[in-house]
Amino acid sequence: MNYLVKTDAFEGPLELLLSLIEKRKLFINDISLATVTDDYITYVNERGNFPTSEIANFIVVAATLLLIKSKSLLPSMILSEDEESDIADLEHRLKVYQRMQELSVHVRERFGKNTLFSRSRVIKREAIFAPSRDTDMEKIVPAIKSLLQNLPKKISIPQTIVQKVISIEEMIDNLTERVTSNLRMSFKDFAGTQKEKVDVIVGFLAMLELVKQGVITVEQQANFDEIQMESKQVATPSYI
After folding, report:
1. Tens digits of per-residue pLDDT, 80-132?
2. Residue 180 sits in which domain range?
3. Which of 27, 116, 118, 170 is surrounded by the most beta carbons within 10 Å?
């Protein structure tokens, strides 16, 4: 069997970056990273079809390389502690990855040789009931009863019927039609036509929304007095 080890360090942007450095026969340092920045960016732009899971890794490395190159072009550029840490981290990860590649040659040569432990043939054994000699009915019966009592019990969840509630959009249309046709009416008269208490609440919210939109005006002379609604829209009045 072929075993493939895949981690952020062993596959992806670091592999590409190290290969670019090795092609130019450079050392892993700030100068080398600044030199291969253009090659790295060019490769990323030309490929353009990275798996979604790898895009972030390539972008992070590209951003760090651009930072290194900017520093090499502008020696007086002052970097923050985080930026200095990112540069040092990238250089360290590359050195570790390079070392891993060198050691992987020896692992490949020795893999599978001098095996100390191997998977033995699985022996299928049938389960049998083999109680101890002191087991009798007086001990078995209480054990079975205890087991049955501790079994998960089926819980019946009562069924409930969710009653449909009129939406505020429907209530706004209903209230607009009523007020427009009557020109003026109290909220109490409108609420009296609603079947459920929740419809009255939705109706009150609809009234506030219509006031906000400027469709109707409301007036209340005193606390807890009747709320009179009046339409600003001209329509054929209904006196029924």
Report:
1. 888 888 878 888 888 888 888 888 877 777 777 777 666 666 677 787 877 78
2. 168-231
3. 170
User: From CA 180, how far away is CA 231, in angstroms rounded?
Assistant: 5
**What does the pLDDT look like over 196-232, one tens digit per residue?**
788 888 888 888 888 888 888 888 888 888 888 888 7
Domain final position from 110, 139, 158: 110
Question: What is the rounded CA–CA span in Å between residue 213 and residue 173?
Answer: 13
